[in-house]
Design a protein that fits this description.
Keywords: Copper, Metal-binding, Oxidoreductase, Signal, Zinc. It holds the Pfam family Sod_Cu. By secondary structure, the chain is an alpha+beta fold. It has a single domain (about 1-175), classed as Superoxide dismutase, copper/zinc binding domain (Immunoglobulin-like, Sandwich). It is built from three helices and eight strands; from the N terminus they run αβββββββαβα. Strands 5-4-7-8-1-2-3-6 form an eight-stranded antiparallel beta sheet, with helices on one face. Helix 1 packs antiparallel against helix 3. The radius of gyration is 16 Å and the shape is globular. The chain binds copper (II) ion (CU) and zinc ion. Copper (II) ion binds near residues 68, 87, 145, 147 and 167.
Length: about 200
């Protein structure tokens, strides 16, 4: 059961040690302050892949949506997802599917997500190209974006297949922020315990 899996993953996040890094993004509808989900990024250590878990609600049933990290953080309360700039692409490669290697996708290319019969996306994926430790590939202080349409992985033959996967307009987004380590009481960023509580509240309102 998907919900159970997400719960187990969240519980495992609570157990994280000192060296692990976690980041969170609160997802809002494009150009509004309507909150529709949360995405967590968790990396155990510098050599581990990044686990991405989350939930996004309020979509049309059984629809497929491109999902990417875009280059820029939204600043100063900006809500327009277009302000996030292009796909995060530090190596100047062509757009590609999540399964591709570093030379055949943008670092920010996370493929597609599918909304279920209730219009809910449950996110559970692991990626070895995005990173929280490696400065060049770090997705912190960037923006995660959900698109209206399927990402064609660069293979669709449309003029924008090699840049955006022809995924259409940006329908929702959220800035990815590193979470503080629990012992760091001076930081302004949210505590991991607060994030997990919020996450459960969204899962089981
Ligand atoms: Cu995108
Ligand atoms: Zn891309």
């Amino acid at each position: 059961m998907k919900f159970l899996l997400v719960c187990i993953l969240i519980f495992s996040l609570v157990q994280i040690g000192h060296s692990a890094l976690t980041a969170t993004a609160n997802i809002h509808v494009d150009s509004t302050s309507v909150a529709i989900g949360t995405v967590l990024f968790h990396q155990r250590d510098a050599n581990s892949p990044v686990r991405v878990v989350g939930i996004i609600d309020g979509l049309k049933n059984n629809t497929v949506h491109g999902f990417h990290v875009h280059r820029d953080a939204l600043m100063n309360g900006e809500l327009n997802c277009t302000a996030a700039g292009p796909h995060f692409n530090p190596y100047s490669t062509l757009h590609g599917p999540r399964e591709a290697d570093l030379g055949h996708r943008h670092v920010g290319d996370l493929g597609n997500l599918t909304a279920n019969d209730n219009g809910i996306i449950i996110i559970e994926l692991t990626d070895s190209i995005i990173d929280l430790y490696n400065a060049t590939r770090s997705v912190a202080n960037r923006t995660i974006v959900l698109h209206a349409m399927r990402d064609d992985g660069g293979k669709g033959g449309f003029p924008d297949s090699n840049t955006t996967g022809d995924a259409g307009p940006r329908i929702a987004c959220g800035v990815i922020s590193l979470a503080m380590i629990e012992s760091d009481t001076n930081s302004q960023s949210p505590k991991i315990s607060t994030m997990v509580t919020d996450f459960f509240r969204k899962l089981f309102p």
